[in-house]
């Protein structure tokens, strides 16, 4: 084989190798771009953050929230729960309807108030009212969602089928709780709540548990 023929063959093989490398490189780049497109397509679009009030330390049910119990954290906007409280001042002084865990977002249904009363009773204008319990031992039988009848010491029925929201803690409940003793916060239609509240100011009342049937 002549020297010229040999040089031509070497050049041809080099060209073939270069072409194959170029093809492989283009395929690799194309695959990388395709993968990037898939990642960008499935990645959720960033929607920023929203300030959310969360519990800074564990809180017992029936306790009044203080500023020290609360903190503000930025949450991804797409996972912020409905009814969340956006400012510490809006939650401080409110009563925790149930036990709250550290880091939990504070929503309107975790606080005793109109929103929880409406959700518990299914009545839009329901109100939450505290009732002093004539028998403190009954408090141990009351849990959120329990339905009770509220009666006076003389046996007069003030309200039927009230929904217990929480039992107020005398030590950490609203001002005056310790002096009043054990109280329960119940949800009622507004007109009945007004009557129960008026009676509870002057006397202790009794509650009787209703049958689940």
UniProtKB/TrEMBL annotation:
Domain SAF: 50-112
InterPro entries: SAF
Entry protein name: Flp pilus assembly protein CpaB
Biological classification of the source: Bacteria, Bacillati, Actinomycetota, Actinomycetes, Pseudonocardiales
């Amino acid at each position: 084989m002549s020297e010229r023929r040999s040089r031509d063959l070497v050049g041809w093989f080099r060209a073939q190798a270069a072409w194959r490398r170029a093809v492989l490189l283009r395929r690799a780049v194309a695959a990388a771009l395709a993968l990037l497109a898939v990642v960008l397509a499935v990645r959720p679009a960033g929607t920023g953050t929203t300030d959310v009030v969360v519990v800074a330390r564990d809180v017992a049910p029936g306790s009044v929230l203080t500023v020290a119990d609360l903190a503000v954290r930025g949450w991804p906007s797409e996972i912020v729960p409905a009814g969340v409280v956006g400012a510490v001042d809006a939650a401080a002084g409110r009563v925790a309807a149930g036990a709250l865990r550290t880091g939990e977002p504070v929503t309107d249904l975790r606080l005793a108030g109109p929103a929880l009363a409406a959700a518990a009773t299914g009545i839009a204008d329901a109100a939450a009212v505290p009732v002093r319990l004539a028998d403190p031992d009954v408090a141990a039988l009351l849990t959120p969602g329990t339905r009770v009848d509220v009666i006076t010491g003389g046996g007069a029925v003030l309200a039927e089928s009230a929904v217990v929201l929480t039992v107020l803690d005398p030590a950490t409940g609203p001002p005056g709780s310790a002096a009043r003793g054990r109280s329960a916060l119940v949800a009622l239609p507004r007109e009945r709540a007004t009557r129960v509240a008026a009676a509870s100011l002057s006397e202790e009342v009794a509650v009787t548990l209703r049958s689940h049937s």
